[in-house]
Amino acid sequence: MQFNRIRRGVCAFAVAALASGGFVSAAMAQSVTVNFLSAQNDDVFQPVIDAFEAANPDIDVVHQTVPFDELNTAIETRVARGDGTIDVYAADTPRIPAFASRGYLLNLDDAKDKITGAVPSAVELELVSHGGSVWAYPMWTSTQLMYFNRDLLKAAKLEMPEGGTSARMTWEQVTANAKAAQDAGAEWGVMFQQVDRYYQLQALFESSGAGNGLTGDDLLEPAMNGDKWVETAQWYADIFENGLAPRGVSPSQTDDLFARGKVAYYIAGPWAIAAFNAAEGLDYGVAPHPYFEGGKQVTPTGAWALGINPHADNLEAARKFAEFVTLTAEGSFLTTKNFPLIPVNAGGFEKYGVAIGEMTPKIGPALDIMAHEGMETAVARPRTVGFVAFETEMNRMFSDVRNGADVKQALDDTQSRLTGLLPRQR
Amino acid sequence: MTRSRKMMILFMFLGPTLAAVILLRLWPASMAVLESLYAPRAQTMSLENYAYIFGDPLFQKSILVTLIYSIIVNPLQIAIALALALLLNVSIPLIGLWRTLILLPVAIPQSVSAVVWGIGLRPDGPVNGLLVALGLGEQRFLTSPDQALGSIILIVSWIGIGYWMTFLLAGLQDIPKSLYEAIRIDGANRWQQFRYITLPQLRRTLTFVLVANTVSNFLVFAPVQILTQGGPQGSTNLIMNDIYTRGFVWGDSSSASAATVVLVSLVLLVVVMQFRLMRAPEDNAA
């Protein structure tokens, strides 16, 4: 009897201990949170976060978003200072060499096989590598399209641009048509989505033969005040000076102007399709990115990858999330649901292709253009540890030029500043 | 009470403050000075960072822009704040409403004010709409190197004037009425009342407002970062924006530290000069 009571007591204790242990471990398991920092709106990542959380009930993902221009500051102030509360962050691929050399990214060499299995393009692997190691999970790539407003072109009796890449318009034609569209009532003739960002404007200088602006073994010497640079920058300055494009509008405000039917020709990434499809009364189409007459056909490329903070509080959960987003077909496709940027994951791209292909009758062969540009005309941004500093100064120069600064002076000033600045980034 | 017990109580009360001063002020300041002496990847101390920033046209211009900005913005804000304080110190109808309206911008975060003004001053924005409606020409405001600094001064003053006015108004209300009665009996006019009673009595408040306003204007950052990032053509690259760009955008923390040391030295120099200028003759005699 006594023995039974003791046995019952021990059993009860064991059950209670197990139960409480289980409860505690369940509570602990539920408390794993992955903090994810990006420059995209919440709705971009919400579908993939929902799917990941459904598959991993023990991990919560908290998305923190900052404006594009603030992302670098957030990484410098948080990741660089050893803050472990950022686990995963979105890194623009040309910034990876700088981040890797400063110790802001976890080495991912152990995931190399997994990455090459899911992302077969060697170029994409190269974009997330530095010094022979892999530092981030490739997520998206990009290109730029020329959007046009059918109503505004119709009003100006202009021909609709053809969707085929063999009928690519020249900048000379686009600016002449833009003027005609404006004379017929369009508020603005031609606009760039990212008015003062190197990512979108590099293609102009590559097309005219000016080059990417950097030279030397480590691409740490500026070369951006030659005649071709001045000539091309002057062309860019003139579209603002002549009133074809508006001054004082920031990149976050440009999509809205096209969506509201105020712009005849508009250069933007494929992700803008989501916003334009949602814009009521906007009848638009897509055509290939223009080039300068007699120059090269060049388009921007490169996009975001996911990096892991080496000081992350939850390294394992962070990697699990990053791998779901980039290395699974489902996760990869879901990142494009509200933000149709091109996924580099093979399975994700297939699903993306179907979704974009369905829009062809309405907007034109966007998918064919993207596939062609990715293979034939894409030129990546220079990969150097000095890229962040270079990009910032170039953006500042573009901003000055579009706001009316003397072009030669602005280029000379930037050249001289970068000459002092870039060697310090080594 | 023994001496050691007294010291213990003293430390109990002062300890947290001392710890905060050391941890939050002296330690980071020392680290900044130390970091400013190491060039990127250097193992030994040198003045290379200082040589680099003083040879950098961007930094030279940022010092110049900061000085021009300070020379304009401080007297402007204090003069308008003082004028408003004098106006609101007399009994005019609806005095509470006017005071609230003038103080209202202070309650709005500086970043929000900057965003609102940014939209207002856009080339196709409402301010230009108003100017055109009044038959005046459109202005470029933040996109023009000639007008951007003026636009920043306008925005910063819109926020600052009400704040500084509050201190001056409190100072005015502390002046004994009997002094005004006495000077009026002696036949003084309004200007003489202002010159011989108001200004000398307001000296301490004015000194505080001048020094605090100067320091806060040296450290202005949010409107510049949000609206111009130092442009166009460096015309609004105030020194705080320059330090931020070096440290947090280029990732060059050593030149940012050197620029910070220069900024602190500059602020100290100006504040010491202001204290000397505002000292009353009787203080000098003492």
| CATH homology superfamily name of chain B | MetI-like
Q: In percent terms, what proportion of residues of chain B is strand?
A: under 5%
Number of domains of chain A: 2
CATH topology descriptor of the largest domain in chain A: D-Maltodextrin-Binding Protein, domain 2
The description of the largest β-sheet of chain B is: none
CATH T-level topology of chain B: MetI-like fold
Strand order of the largest sheet of chain A: 2-1-3-15-6
Number of domains of chain B: 1
Layout: helices, strands, pairs:
The complex is a heterodimer of chains A (about 425) and B (about 290).
Chain A lengths: L1 H29 L1 E7 L3 H14 L3 E7 L2 H12 L8 E5 L3 H6 L10 H7 L3 H6 L1 E2 L2 E2 L2 E2 L1 E2 L3 E5 H6 L15 H13 L4 E5 L5 H11 L5 E2 L5 E2 L4 H15 L9 H9 L3 E6 L3 H7 L5 E5 L10 E2 L3 E5 L6 H13 L1 H6 L7 E2 L2 H12 L2 H4 L2 H11 L1 E2 L7 H16 L4 H15 L5
Parallel strand pairs in A: 1-2, 1-3, 9-12, 14-17
Antiparallel strand pairs in A: 3-15, 4-5, 6-15, 7-16, 8-12, 8-13, 10-11
Helix pairs in contact in A: 18-19
Chain B lengths: L2 H34 L11 H7 L2 H33 L5 H13 L2 H11 L5 H8 L14 H26 L3 H9 L4 H12 L1 H16 L3 H6 L11 H11 L3 H26 L2 H5 L1
